[in-house]
Amino acid sequence: MIRHRNHWPLPVSILLALLLGLLPLPEVLQPLRPYWLALVLAFWVLEDNARVGLGTVFLLGLVADLAFGGLLGEQSLRLVVMAFILQRFRAQLRFFPLAQQSLAIGGLLLNDRVVSSVLHLTLGEPLLPWTYWWAPLVGMLLWPPLFVLLDGLRFSRRARR
């Protein structure tokens, strides 16, 4: 068997992450919405560092700011901080078991909430309610199935004849 790299999962997964971020949820479930774009970009920064770097993450953060209607540059800053930490520890994180990777991603998503809160506090913007601090836990629990799904889509197997 030869494994061939597919190029379509990267743009499709980013588009789906943006769409999932825009999907309307009931008010009760809104605080539990995972940061889909961060989860998808975390996968690509870890697994395909050559195609997804800090510049790409910054530009996708600006697209997300425009799509979600937030402060221009907020998601760019949050995503670049996350991607920088992932790149710094990429060699170690790639070889963690999936359960340990989930804990690390949960920590990064929690750090994302801290960065967002500090930014909102500094700019005098209203802070999110405390219930929004549950979203990193949901993201941490979604990491293993998302990782397995994207990793499976990243390569196709073709029989050698």
TrEMBL record:
The chain crosses the membrane at residues 52-72, 93-110, 130-153. Keywords: Cell inner membrane, Cell membrane, Cell shape, Membrane, Transmembrane, Transmembrane helix. The keyword Signal does not apply. It is found in: Cell inner membrane; Cell membrane. It is a multi-pass membrane protein. Belongs to the MreD family. Involved in formation of the rod shape of the cell. May also contribute to regulation of formation of penicillin-binding proteins. This is Rod shape-determining protein MreD. It comes from Luteimonas vadosa. The gene is mreD.
